[in-house]
Prior knowledge:
InterPro entries: DUF7708. Pfam families: DUF7708 (PF24809). It comes from Epicoccum nigrum. This is DUF7708 domain-containing protein. Strands 1-2 form a two-stranded antiparallel sheet. The chain is globular. By secondary structure, it is mostly helical. The longest helix has 29 residues, at about 150-180. Strand 1 (about 60) and strand 2 form a beta hairpin. The chain has one domain. The chain starts with 12 loop residues before the first helix and ends with a helix. It has helices spanning about 15-20, 25, 40-55, 70-90, 100-115, 120-145, 150-180, 180-185, 195-220, 230-245, 250-269, and strands spanning about 60, 70. About 70% of the residues lie in helices and about 0% in strands.
Amino acid sequence: MAPNMPHQSANDLWADAAGQLSADDKQHINFNQPDKLQILVELRADAELSKQISIDKRWKFVRKSGETVVVRDVFEKIVRWVDTFKQIGDIAVQYDATHASLPWAGIRLILQIAVNDTQNLNLVVEGLAEIAELICRYAVTETLYNQAASKADEGLKRAMVKLYASILGYLSKANQYLKQGTAKRMIKSVVLTEKQLDLGLDAIRTAEKEIRPWMNLVDKDDTIRHQNTFSADRIRNHDALVYLLQGMDVPLRRMDDRLKDLNDNLQSK
């Protein structure tokens, strides 16, 4: 049976991205979330529990590059990105956080499948943390940049939809891969392989790189355009989002300080 697709609107880039998926990819995404915001609460709780399990069991793995990854640290990143996304919703009231429920639900589902199989978990957990960061980064980008309908703005939207479609496609394939079972994965003719998951992450990274030039073009168009039209409150929120976006490039400990500063500022208003 065909999945119930989310309603597409002019401002829901995730719904637009879902519409670009193949029929097969759509079959492995749950479009029927009863409470779209509750998924963040559930994902955070799952990630915290998994983090504690990884601490107790001292889970580590070695990347192909030879670097050792402490799994606890990766779960910590996922928790922090969930907290960051909630903060974005507090600042940017015009951003509809339910739009990003699809990828968050996908992350949670894959964690639930993989957490009891360390080999599978090692395969996907860093990719999930990377995707969690991108969900946050481009939620802010949507709010900061999608304010008009110039050619640059439309180009940026198309590039972001491509990124979102790549993310949803990866989550769908990871879900499908993990559900194949060990026996099927050993068959060379199996539909999905670890290599295809790696290629899925490569596609996400390539799509993100294609966004940057469009952001630069929008910046040139918008240098003065909004200065005279923003209210004082909106300017403050705009500055807070810029601060949050810049903070995404700093280590998690410093990022925690930024989130606390923003929360204190919001409460004082």
